[in-house]
Amino acid sequence: MTTATVDRTRELAAFLRTRRERLDPRDLGLPPRRQTRRTPGLRREEVAELAGVSVDYIVRLEQARGLRPSADVVEALARALRLAPDERAYLFDLARQRPRDADKLVTTATPPLARLVDDLSPLPAMLLNHRYDILAWNAEMARLLVDLDTLLPSQRNSMWLCLMHPQVREFYLDRERVVREGIAHLRAAWAAHPDDRALTDLIAEFTADNEDFARLWAERDVRINGRGRKVMRHPEVGVIAVQFETLRPLQDPDQLLVIYRAADEESQSALDRLCAR
């Protein structure tokens, strides 16, 4: 299944509506109103007042009527809607107000980074691009997840593995959280690379074929999570808890270096047994 590239105007409209509806007027110190609110969150009039723009402007934005807000207006909307840093960057991308290199789409590993992935052994490590395509990996990561050499190139994608691969999709004890965090990253990447047809096709495939992805994608969460913990049940050595760290090289900012470390002694022992095989 394929889909068109990002329709920024419609996505901007939908994103503004969802962010407005999630806010509690009481948290913003707004005076109570006697009239019952028909929809959750802030009214358009309240957002307009907080952002210093007209109500008609908010209406036209939320109706996708072709407006392109300036950087100052985007900043005002981000403040009014109390956007988190990743959400703010997403809004700037949708409004075409954040500089980026639109022609640079990374599909292969930079050789020095590929060598670094190998040098990080015995720590499991891999190199990703913005789509979560796995560009390079070391033996420890292959033993922990799945033998990536046996997969088709189109399947070497960490989100595809988590959603579609019969072994890896059952790995994570907290699969909902792992999928949710991955989707929040993909949404940010989708806005930052609106002309990447391969990414939009991938998202369309996931939306059509996986109910969990479709449900979570519709929530429009945006977050780039570069550090955290995952707990997986490996079929050979049992439960392994890892801490992961995601690094963005200055020379190649569109590539992500992901490194796993055992989170406790039992997990380290399990990793040692697994890699010894």
TrEMBL record:
PROSITE patterns: HTH_CROC1 (PS50943)
Signal peptide location: none
Gene3D superfamilies with a match to the protein in the record: 3.30.450.180, lambda repressor-like DNA-binding domains
Coiled coil: none
Residue intervals of the HTH cro/C1-type domain: 41-88
Classification via Pfam families: HTH_31 (PF13560), MLTR_LBD (PF17765)
Designated name of the protein: Transcriptional regulator with XRE-family HTH domain
